[in-house]
Amino acid sequence: MKSQILLTFLLLLSAILSVQGQIEKKKSTGNDETSRVFWLQEMDRMLRPVLRSLAHDSLRINMPQITSAQVDNKEHRIKVQYVEVLGRVLSGIAPWLSLDGGSEAERKLREQYRTWTVLALKNALDSNARDFMRFDLGGQQLVDASFITLGFMRSPWLWENIDDQTRKNLIASIKITRQFRPAYSNWLLFSAMNEAFLAKYSEDWDVMRVDYALQQLEQWYVGDGMYMDGPYYAFDYYNSYVIHPFLAGIMDMIQLKTKHYDSMFAKIRLRNERYAIIQERLINADGSFPPTGRSVIYRAAAFHHLADMAFKKRLPKELSNGQVRGALSAVLKKTTQNPNTYQNGWLTLGVYGSQPGLADSYNNQGSPYLCSVIFLPLGLPDEDPFWKSEVTDWSAKRIWSGQDWSRDSSKAIH
Q: Which of 6-15, 100-109, 156-165 bottoms out in mean pLDDT, i.e. has the lowest?
């Protein structure tokens, strides 16, 4: 009898130790949904089909030609989707490409993506390649070119590692888009970003395009960290998709060229901080967020600005690294966990799975890849406080679990 009890005890102890071992193994590998490993896995899953195909000069062969059911010009939207997907992917992955170090697995993965990205850019800009991309097809090319330049502004490594001919081709392609008149909206920032790129990499830049965008956005500021997108305010995510990240990126370059905008830039920094606080409050306890306004199929790009602020280490004192990492991880998980997020490896049009009814008339297969900007914090080293800090509950998770928390209040930033 005693031997049976002892045997039962030993089996139970063995089972407990086995479970604990599995837990510890999971902890040691960082394989949880807030870890760098999880973020890298999702990045690889999302971006591999794009950059691998373009590196092998087969993007036009492999990429589906999907448009919104409400498409305004199907043929044109398909033609421009290739520059669109390249720009959106580059704008998100660029900081990580510039980084060194990390685990052996991460270094190996980065080397693969570096190789693919250099070849992808060469093919995209080489008129003899199957995947050659024209930049003169229409106004949308102005938009998409600016996301390419945004990627280069975020990653000096890109410019340093493409060959001279690809550099010349890129500068010429960006200048081609000057022929398109930007819409009287956030589009002014697309022109300005392209000129900021030229200011950095060619010195031949148009000061007036930058000045016009900065001065007009200043007129469109409505308070509490938010801007109108043109003459009218819209409750959507364009303050995050474009306005705040682009203003910050343009500011970072232009402040090196002139002191003329110093007082404006000081206000932009304060507005950046306030809107980051608002963004964190918009993330629900489960990582979902209000699916309001146009372009919601950009998924996690709704938090482009918050990710950019984390990457640039400019989070306001109200937001801790662990809090923001927890919130952004929840968004990343929520927007990719639906089994219909991908079809044959490519992102579908939707927020939570395939939801084509949410797409706008201008959306195509390249459009949802703006969500790659969620990966900007991967541009921080693995020993950075963003990754090393203990993950804590973000505002919504604290409040809706009954925890006490600090109240939010608007800020008068003029």
A: 6-15
